[in-house]
Design brief:
By secondary structure, the protein is mainly beta. About 10% of the residues lie in helices and about 30% in strands. It has helices at about 1-5, 40-45, and strands at about 10-15, 20-25, 45-50, 65-70, 80-90, 95-105. A hairpin with a 6-residue loop joins strand 5 and strand 6. The longest helix is centred in the first third of the chain and has 7 residues, at about 40-45. The radius of gyration is 25 Å and the shape is rod-shaped. The chain starts with a helix and ends in a 39-residue tail after the last strand.
């Protein structure tokens, strides 16, 4: 069964917005399913998630098939890199490694306009003030 588990390294890039939950789902399908017992394969796979960018604290379940990162844990402007190693426990040396990068984009700013709650006539009033002071940047980014 070794030949079915040795696959080239896989790389994926996912783009998410700050504040969202991230779920990276893994699957394994043997190249020739008729030659393998899929129940045996799925029961014998060991998963190991690590961060190659120094963010191991985001991995709550390093031996789960899926990588789940709760909302609010990723920061905009940072790319997080993870590695998944699959090991077929019944056949030592049969491993595959996949890589995934998660690029986190900022959420768009929220515009709130206040102090414009009446109709005005251009002939009777000289100045109209519209305030956008309640607008905000949801990711709390600061200009550098």
């Amino acid at each position: 069964m070794d030949k079915f588990l040795r696959r080239p390294k896989y790389f994926a890039l996912h783009q998410v917005t700050a504040g969202s939950q991230v779920v990276i789902t893994t699957t394994y399908t043997p190249p020739n399913a008729t030659q393998c017992n899929s129940t045996l394969i799925s029961g014998g796979l060991k998963y190991t998630w690590t961060s190659t960018s120094g963010h191991d604290s985001l991995i709550d379940f390093p031996n789960a098939a899926d990588l789940v990162i709760a909302s609010g844990r990723l920061v905009a402007g940072i790319t997080y890199a993870f590695e998944l190693t699959n090991n077929f426990q019944l056949s030592p040396g049969s491993t595959t490694t996949s890589y995934v990068n998660i690029s986190v984009a900022s959420n768009p700013p929220v515009a709130k306009i206040t102090s414009c709650n009446r109709l005005v006539s251009k002939t009777t009033e000289g100045m109209v003030t519209i305030s956008g002071a309640q607008s905000y940047e949801p990711d709390n980014l600061t200009l550098g």
